[in-house]
Amino acid sequence: MSQEFSTILLAAVGAVLFVGGLLFFLRPSWLLGWLKGMAVFGIMAIGAYLLVIALNLYDYQSLSGMQTVASVSTQEQGDQRWGVAFELVGQEPVVASLRGDQWQVDARIIRFTGPLRWLGIGPAYRLERLGGRYTSLEQERSNPRSVIGLNDAVWVDLWELDRQFDLPFVEGVYGNATFMPMRDGAVFDVRLSGSGLVAVPANEEAHKAVQYW
């Protein structure tokens, strides 16, 4: 396509759009109807967005400052095989088996900005899974991984939507606790803030596990 033809085509499209815009303004009823329609769609979109936020706040738990959200205790069951009790604050523990030498907890954190923050909506979190890991790279590559799910999937997950579409006034953060060693009889507290997870020893066996790790 020659530059001359491209220029003519561009001018023709520009002229059509300009004249169409003038005709649009010459008939104010069209403009008024269009503005009403756009306003209605805008209100519906805002309402749907706020509804998704509200539904996710129901599934996520509120977070204020650094707080202990769970505890993890480990019992040796065999060679690199551990019974793990994961207990959320105020709930019955989830008991399962993990393979490996270390464990880690993953969480999804949602932070709010702008008008949502002005309304007093604080960060919210959702613990996702508890997983095991081998210290040996060869075992980590070849041996089966063991993961315990801590929550069911959310139908419309605000965290996922923000990661894909960068939603306004919402920030989805992925938090995980540093891998901690497995030890028979050890208990760790899992603490969470708006920036992520931290695991700290809660008894003597856990302190020894970290000390000699």
From TrEMBL:
Keyword terms, alphabetized: Membrane, Transmembrane, Transmembrane helix
Source organism superkingdom: Bacteria
The keyword Transmembrane is assigned to this record: yes
Spans traversing the lipid bilayer: 7-26, 38-58
Protein's name according to its UniProt entry: Multidrug transporter
